[in-house]
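Task 17 of the worksheet. Students: predict the tertiary structure of the chain below and write it out as structure tokens. Keep your answer in the requested format; marks are given for formatting as well as content.
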Amino acid sequence: MAKTVTFLDSRYELYILPEARNKMELYCDLSDGEIGWLAFVEKFDTQGFLITDCVLLKQEVNGTTTEIDPMALIEFWNETPIEKQCKIKCWGHSHVNMSPTPSGQDDSQMEYFKDGNPWFIRLITNKKREYNIDIFDYANGIKIHMDQADLKTFNPAESEMRKNIEEEIKAKVSKKTYTTPAKTTTPAKSSSTVWSNSKSYYKGGGKKKGAESTKPMLEDIDVKYVGSFDEILNDPNYWQDVLGK
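Model answer:
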């Protein structure tokens, strides 16, 4: 019965530096037959693994196989600094134009890398940029399979630039906000008519032409509020003031 394992963290994520990826793809593009290489891999913080460089060794190839020269392998190992020897953790090769599905020989080869390695990566690709990748976690008895979508290019310079630009945007760019003016209430106009029973008001007793006054115009006027103009016309007091002697 098939079993499914889901990881709740990023411990098996796989990244590759741009230069390492370019070298690997050029190996495939410029070779007519199969071609193999080894790669340096580092633990990438808590995010998984990072392929930092690929190395091409002396080998014999044909359309379906590749055999690395044993002496070239020993020479490569001896020339590699001791602190980097433990980082030789990936074997990659091309299937030219065929599917990158592992062969029986590919599976047998991984038994060889099991000796002395807690984990090792097998990467198979082709000229179509198709990938078949397996992380063999020998220490925990797990094999993790992934394809091209899971191999992510990590560019340190681009990542640093992205971080700097994110900080610059936060510092210099803000969202424009709009303030709605507060509503003002206009007093309702009164329907009442104002008139005065002061004789001086109706007969020009108020401010004379050319005269200067600092007093309000209605200071000495008696004011009566009415509901309509008809009330004024029907009020005898009004006519007395207008026509009075």
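Marker's comment: The chain has two domains: 14-158, 193-243. DSSP finds eight helices and twelve strands in the chain.
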